[in-house]
């Protein structure tokens, strides 16, 4: 039986033509991958670079003074920000992938997604070139929210310091998190392996089980998880990102490089293994996904384990765990999703009274 010929679209034709032109230029810079095959990570300028001083000018003196300052200092590279080590790690994975698959489009693609004005772009470009970062796609929205462009860029993960924008992205069905700078403790990160750590409930999975914990207590939760052990949990906001990481991991496995794969994933959950761990692992299995290491802490603090792992990024839905991770030097990212946003350290957060007038 003859295989059906793939449909060639106008977009495919344009992309092939663009590739021919790019290759003819013989640039040392690697060509960005085709978006439909890439794992696209959109980062804001304030996560990639430390722009605290510039932000202060914006807040205290206004946008015109801010833009003028950036233009006057555009030859000065910005300082490295909280997402900088992650971006470098993504680039190292790409380097390994290109050696194994020279013509593959399945790579990480980093997009700078910012509401900065275009006039600030020169300093951002100069900083990217100073650090030799491979970031060719920019989206600069001149003060408007960039969230509406995330789907157009086929974004797999959006990282920002603006919690409101992150929430907006999650509501649009895009994996997103608010990044926080770690504490004073310096944790040296791996320069050979990208390490990504995930909480389970309300991050990889929905918050359905967490709702039961909060509303009915642990005993009811344990009974519920045992009863529904073979029913997969619904997906959470970052399931699709774990899926994207798994796609790239399998490319290394196919070349017999499982033991030297430069991507490693971790599940770091407050769940108890014996009481409620089976459903989590069976859910991942039902999705066809693997996790390299699963750590069930049974309510113990996550910070000490994360200090040992030293991930480039750790995702959690509860600020209590984010704060504990930060204190021990872990780069943490908050996923504002689910019932956990209404609680802190297990206690309900008082909601402002509604105006009934």
Topology:
Blueprint: H1 10-24, E1 39-43, H2 45-48, E2 49-50, H3 52-61, H4 63-72, E3 79-80, H5 84-100, E4 108-114, H6 121-130, E5 137-140, E6 155-160, H7 163-171, E7 176-180, E8 194-198, H8 208-216, H9 218-227, H10 239-253, E9 263-269, H11 273-286, E10 293-296, H12 303-309, E11 313-316, H13 319-327, E12 332-334, E13 343-344, E14 347-348
Parallel strand pairs: 1-4, 1-6, 4-5, 6-7, 8-9, 8-11, 9-10, 11-12
Antiparallel strand pairs: 2-3, 7-12, 13-14
Helix pairs in contact: 3-4, 8-9, 9-11, 12-13
Descriptive report:
By secondary structure, the protein is of the alpha/beta class. The chain folds into 2 domains: 32-179, Rossmann fold; 194-348, Rossmann fold. It has 13 helices and 14 strands. It has helices spanning 10-24, 45-48, 52-61, 63-72, 84-100, 121-130, 163-171, 208-216, 218-227, 239-253, 273-286, 303-309, 319-327, and strands at residues 39-43, 49-50, 79-80, 108-114, 137-140, 155-160, 176-180, 194-198, 263-269, 293-296, 313-316, 332-334, 343-344, 347-348. The strands form 3 sheets. The protein has a 10-stranded mixed sheet with strand order 5-4-1-6-7-12-11-8-9-10. It is globular and about 60 Å long. It starts with 9 loop residues before the first helix and ends in a 9-residue tail after the last strand. The model has no long low-confidence stretch (mean pLDDT 88).
């Amino acid at each position: 039986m003859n295989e059906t010929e793939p449909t060639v679209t106008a977009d495919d034709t344009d992309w092939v033509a663009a590739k021919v032109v790019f290759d003819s230029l013989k640039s040392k810079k690697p060509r960005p991958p085709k978006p439909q095959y890439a794992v696209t990570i959109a980062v804001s300028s304030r996560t990639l670079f430390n722009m605290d001083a510039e932000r202060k000018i914006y807040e205290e003196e206004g946008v015109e003074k801010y833009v003028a300052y950036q233009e006057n200092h555009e030859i000065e590279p910005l300082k490295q920000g909280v997402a900088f080590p992650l971006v470098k790690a993504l680039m190292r994975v790409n380097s390994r992938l290109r050696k194994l698959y020279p013509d593959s489009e399945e790579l990480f693609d980093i997009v700078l997604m910012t509401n900065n004005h275009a006039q600030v772009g020169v300093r951002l470009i100069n900083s990217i070139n100073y650090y030799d970062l491979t970031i060719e796609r920019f989206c600069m929205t001149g003060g408007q929210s960039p969230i509406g462009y995330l789907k157009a860029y086929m974004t797999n993960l959006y990282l920002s310091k603006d919690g409101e924008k992150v929430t907006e992205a999650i509501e649009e069905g895009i994996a997103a998190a608010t990044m926080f700078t770690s504490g004073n403790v310096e944790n040296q990160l791996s320069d050979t392996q990208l390490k990504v750590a995930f909480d389970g409930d309300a991050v990889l999975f929905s918050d359905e089980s967490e709702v039961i914990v909060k509303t009915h207590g642990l005993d009811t939760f344990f009974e519920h998880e045992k009863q529904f052990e073979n029913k997969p949990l619904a997906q959470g906001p970052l399931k699709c990102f774990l899926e994207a990481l798994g796609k790239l991991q399998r490319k290394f496995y196919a070349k017999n490089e499982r033991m030297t794969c430069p991507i490693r994933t971790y599940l770091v959950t407050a769940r108890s293994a014996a009481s409620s761990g089976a459903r989590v692992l069976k859910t991942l299995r039902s999705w066809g996904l693997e996790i390299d290491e699963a750590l069930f802490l049974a309510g113990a603090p996550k910070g000490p384990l994360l200090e040992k792992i030293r991930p480039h990024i750790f995702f959690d839905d509860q600020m209590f765990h984010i704060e504990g991770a930060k204190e021990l030097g872990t780069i943490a990212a908050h996923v504002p999703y689910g019932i956990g946003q209404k609680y802190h350290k297990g206690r309900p957060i008082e909601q402002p009274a509604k105006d009934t007038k």
